[in-house]
Amino acid sequence: MSHYCKIHSLKYFYTAASNVPNFPEFVVVGLVDEVQVEHCDSNTRRFVPRQDWMNNVTEEDSEYWDRNTERLLEAQQTFKGNIEILKQRLNQTGGVHIFQNMYGCEWDDETDEVNGYYQFGYDGEDFISFDLKTETWIAPVQQAVPTKHKWDNDKVLVAYRKQYLTQICPYWLKKYVKFGRSSLMRKDLPSVSLLQKTPSSPLTCHATGFYPDRADLFWKKDEEELHEDVVRGEILPNHDGSFQMSADLDVSGLKDEDWGRYSCVFHLAGGQEVSKRLDKRDIRTNWKTNDGGQRLFISLSFSHVCCWRSCCCSAPSDRLHHWTHRLLEETTSR
């Protein structure tokens, strides 16, 4: 098996919600290389594996799940209290509020270099984050300044944050990668479909079922990649741990004789490709055609798919902004 993945990641997302209908008060999700591997929420009250290979952790640490369950249930009360503190600090009363903590590390398995981040957000905005290089907290909003001063002066806390991000987190990340290597290092090519909602709609090239998420999808004309009249979507995770993405092509001005000059190309990390030439007969649509196109009635909303926003290439602040939508969809879809 080829060794294509150089950067591995371990991420944790803690979300405390206040007055959000049909959503747990507290949710924790852990991801390895963008694959969800652990989960706990205030409804189930249990920290559990989301990948079979994560059960291997008990071979070396039999109390792993019980110990972390207890720790996370304690954290729930802390996060609940944090929402009340922030509501008072911001002069808020009722309404929907979400407090989040995102932290994690990355490890280069060739150079052994590690990096980490630790930050908090409130109602979708950055609140405070830890700068690993300067070993200080950064407060992007005035309301976080008191917290910054308090935490900067707590040298024990600062030292622990640094130790966790540079030693403890990479230690566990390496273990998880070892347990799940056969799954995390696999390569799966997608199925590629051509979709169109109406005759005047853009034509969508949709690739789903690929792994890993290091991939590209684009349109070509006469073997030349197109940039105009093309809208490319984000890489989104599927329920089964694979990924999907799409690229829209404006075909409103396309002449019938030119259709065969266009093709959609999916490129997976490592060089593997799937190419689909533009052919009206292959288009799946929810309108009837008289020219041989497939008479298949489908919805292009993909509402049945857990369309989390992809976080793999974003800065930590971007990932935190995305997480509310991502977590809400994943939880309410179960």
Draw up the topology in text:
Layout (H helix, E strand, L loop, with lengths): L6 E12 L7 E7 L2 E7 L6 E2 L7 H4 L3 H26 L7 E12 L5 E9 L2 E7 L4 E3 L6 H8 L2 H30 L6 E6 L6 E8 L4 E7 L2 E2 L4 E3 L3 E2 L5 E7 L12 E7 L4 E5 L5 E3 L30 H17 L2
Key terms:
334 residues; alpha+beta; Murine Class I Major Histocompatibility Complex, H2-DB, Chain A, domain 1; Immunoglobulin-like; 2 domains; 8-stranded antiparallel β-sheet; 5 helices; disordered N terminus; disordered C terminus
Query: What's the quaternary structure here?
Result: single chain
Overall helicity? 25-40%
**Largest sheet composition:** 8 strands, antiparallel
- Termini separation (Å)? 34 Å
CATH homologous superfamily title of the largest domain: MHC class I-like antigen recognition-like
SSE-based structural type: alpha+beta
Uncertain regions spanning at least 5 consecutive residues: 1-5, 289-334
- What is the rounded Rg? 23 Å
